Amino acid sequence: MTLRHIVSWKLSGETLAERDAQAAEIRAALEPLTELVPSVRALSVHRNELFDGDNFDVTLIADFDDAEGLSAYATHPDHLAAGAIIASHAAGRVATDFTR
């Protein structure tokens, strides 16, 4: 089984261009974690394409072997650094974790 971790953020940028730039910075911070954090099995970052303003702006989908792998990711220094970047842009967050 795989533990899937999905997080979406509402960004603080006032314009679409600002939110696009924030999303690009978040993607650039998160995507390298695939290679930097051993417990990550797969990771992708997606920018919302429809209903700007209504939907959340950017979504992370990450897979781990188990909850321990997610915990190792959550406390990894490179993830914490990415989290600081995200926190500087995020106006809201929602997450879900499930096995598949």
Please give a structural write-up:
By secondary structure, the chain is of the alpha+beta class. The chain has 4 helices and 4 strands. It has helices spanning 16-30, 33-36, 67-75, 77-89, and strands at residues 3-11, 42-47, 58-64, 90-99. A 4-stranded antiparallel beta sheet has the order 2-3-1-4. Helix 1 runs antiparallel to helix 4 (77-89). The longest helix has 15 residues, at 16-30. The mean pLDDT is 97.
Q: Strand sequence of the main sheet, in spatial order? A: 2-3-1-4
Arithmetic mean pLDDT = 97
SSE order:
EHHEEHHE
Largest sheet: 4 strands, antiparallel
Terminal-residue CA separation: 6 Å
Q: Short summary of the structure?
A:
The chain is α+β, with helices and mostly antiparallel strands and 100 residues long. Helix content is 41%, strand content 32%.
